[in-house]
Design brief:
About 55% of the residues lie in helices and about 5% in strands. The protein has about 120 residues and is mainly alpha-helical.
């Protein structure tokens, strides 16, 4: 059986993981999260993926959700990462979020994580 990540996930499907993740969030966020489940990425384009995920999330979470469950799967989801990246790079603050190669290469191995964190936590 294929495994996703750590061993502890091998008995769970994506809908179970999604539901458990939402349930671990603050109560005031759960409604928005259940209302806005977004499927993205090339794998979600597999035949029947959207329909199966939607059916299984309803079976898993209808009792817990206490709200309407909406699963969104835009047609351009194959390229969503590229679209998001292009939007991010168009921000005027993008240069503040990036690390120059010279800064990274001049940083010693023990401090590389600090160099990265300093620029990614905004």
């Amino acid at each position: 059986m294929p495994k996703i990540g750590a061993e502890k996930f091998h008995d769970f499907g994506l809908t179970q993981i999604a539901c458990d993740s939402i349930e671990k969030c603050d109560a005031d966020l759960k409604i928005n999260l259940y209302n806005n489940i977004v499927l993205t990425g090339g794998t979600t384009l597999m035949h029947g993926f959207y329909e199966r995920f939607e059916q299984e999330i309803h079976m898993e979470a209808d009792e817990k959700a206490k709200t309407e469950i909406n699963v969104n799967a835009a047609l351009q989801r194959r390229n969503a990462a590229w679209i998001g990246g292009s939007m991010l790079s168009s921000f005027s603050t993008f240069s503040d979020m990036t690390i120059k190669y010279s800064d990274y290469s001049e940083t010693n191995e023990n401090d590389k994580h600090n160099c990265i964190l300093k620029n990614t936590v905004y």
